[in-house]
Amino acid sequence: MLEAATHVFPFWKSIPLSAGLLFCALALVAGACKSDYQGSTRQARPGDSQARQVKTARVEETPFGESVTANGTLAAYDQSTASAKVAGRLSTISVDLGSVVRRGQMVAQVEPNDYKLRVQQAEAALAQARARVGLSPDGKDDAVNPEQTGTVRQARAVLDEAKVSRDRAAKLVQQGIVARSEFDTVDSAYKVAVSRYQDAIEEIRNRQALVAQRRSELALARQQLADTAVYSPLDGIVQEKRASVGEYLAAGAPVVDIVRMNPLRLRAEVPERDAGTIRFGQNVRVSVEGDAKVYLGQIKRLSPVIAQQNRMLMVEADVQNDGSLRPGSFAKAEIVTNDAKMAVTVPNNSIVTFAGIEKVIVVQNGKALEKPITTGRKSGDWTEILAGINVGEQVIVDPGNLQSGMAVEVVQ
User: Fold this and answer.
1) Lowest mean pLDDT among 3-7, 226-230, 407-411
2) I want to staple 317 with a disulfide (CB 3.0 to 4.6 A). Which of 120, 237, 266, 332 is the partner?
3) Is residue 311 within 8 Å of residue 271, measured between CB atoms?
4) Alpha-carbon dihedral of residues 192, 194, 196, 197, nearest 10 degrees?
5) Angle at 370 between CA 366 and CA 373, to 5 degrees
6) CA-CA distance, 57 to 412, in Å (whole number)?
7) Distance between alpha carbon 210 and the CA centroid of its chain, in Å?
8) DSSP sequence for 85-133
9) How far, in Å, CA of 355 to CA of 376, rounded?
10) What whole-number distance in Å separates Cα of residue 369 and Cα of residue 362?
11) In whole angstroms, what is the distance from residue 228 CA to residue 241 CA?
12) Considering the chain, what percentage of its residues have pLDDT values greater than 90?
């Protein structure tokens, strides 16, 4: 026995010290790992969480309508430039870029002093013309009877005298008292008096016309004075200020550009293959980049032709603007061509998107089950489902981070 023991000892003795220490360390680590794994297993087994409470919505078939999708641009419904109607130096301007203006609001003023002097000059000329026809200088009524004017009365008196002289000479000739030559002289004087009387009436009528001309000149001068104020032609917002105080403006020079913001015009192009389904009055759902809201509009104008360059039909829709839309924005339009068509729909808040894949989560045997889906159009709070689920299934709304296999409890 002693001999056998003596024989074994040299084997252990022959093992290097470092190798022995390594062997012992490996054994300890293996024992510790096994102990930790068993501990973690025991800790995870009772970790089955309680069922998560969720709400569901039924997949339904609802009227969703057929539609045609087109891309377009939003434009201002009306755009106008407020211009100076008269020449002059700009004295004031009360608006700037982005200012909200109302129709008839004064936005700028041309220096009015020169035009005030023109009004005074026209008033003086009118008073002078009225005086020449025997009217008061500051009256409003320009009607006059030519027979009541001094010029015509004078000519009338001369005519009456000439007529009496002619009649008297005619009787004396018949009686043989005066020669025929004297009658001819008196008759000629009578004819001259008739002509002068007619000239007097024509002169008064000419002066009446001059009064009318002076009154229209006064009205024009007053209008030019009023035109020194520049007014907004429509309700809208200032798009650009194009003149500054102190600048001399010619007649018709632009002052500000104004755009009408509500409604907006949507100009979209519809492919020729879909042009036959577009009608006046159809509803349009409009969306723009960076805005999740869907805006409603209506087809108001259709081009009579299809463009030969791109085989597109130009359509225009009026879109109600709550202040969020801006002219010039790129827009995607969905034109509803058939309101009666049915479609399978789910609430928008039941759809989960991950890595570009859309899915919904249904409840099956008390557990959550993910189902990939193919979506179509969106309208308000609902989305059309083209494939993936069937009518009658219950989908979880607002699933959050819920995953397949997790226990769920449906609550109302």
Assistant:
1) 3-7
2) 266
3) yes
4) 160
5) 135
6) 10
7) 49
8) SS-EEEEEE---TT-EE-TT-EEEEE--HHHHHHHHHHHHHHHHHHHHT
9) 18
10) 5
11) 18
12) 36
- In the numeric block, the tokens 């041309």 are attached to 110
Q: Note the pLDDT of residue 5.
A: 38
pLDDT band for position 264 (cuts 50, 70, 90): very high
Sorted by sequence, the CB contacts under 8 Å of residue 228 that are 6+ apart come out as 86, 88, 109, 110, 111, 112, 115
**Two structure tokens written together for 99:** 């200012």
Quick: pLDDT tens for 171-202.
Answer: 888 887 878 888 888 889 889 999 998 998 88
Q: What is the pTM of this model?
A: 0.57
> Is pLDDT of 58 > 90?
no
Estimate to the nearest angstrom the gap between the alpha carbon of 95 and the chain centroid: 19
What's the number of CA atoms in the CB half-sphere (13 Å) around residue 67? 21
The per-residue pLDDT for range 12-45, each reduced to its tens digit, is: 344 443 444 334 344 333 443 333 333 333 333 3
| CA nearest neighbour of 255 among 263, 245, 266 | 245
What pLDDT, on the 0 to 100 scale, is given for residue 48? 47
Q: How is the beta sheet containing 382-387 ordered, strand by strand?
A: 60-63, 342-347, 382-387, 374-379
Q: What angle do CA 37, 43, 46 make, to 5 degrees?
A: 140
Contact 312, 327 (CB under 8 A): no
Give the distance from CA 138 to its chain's centroid: 50
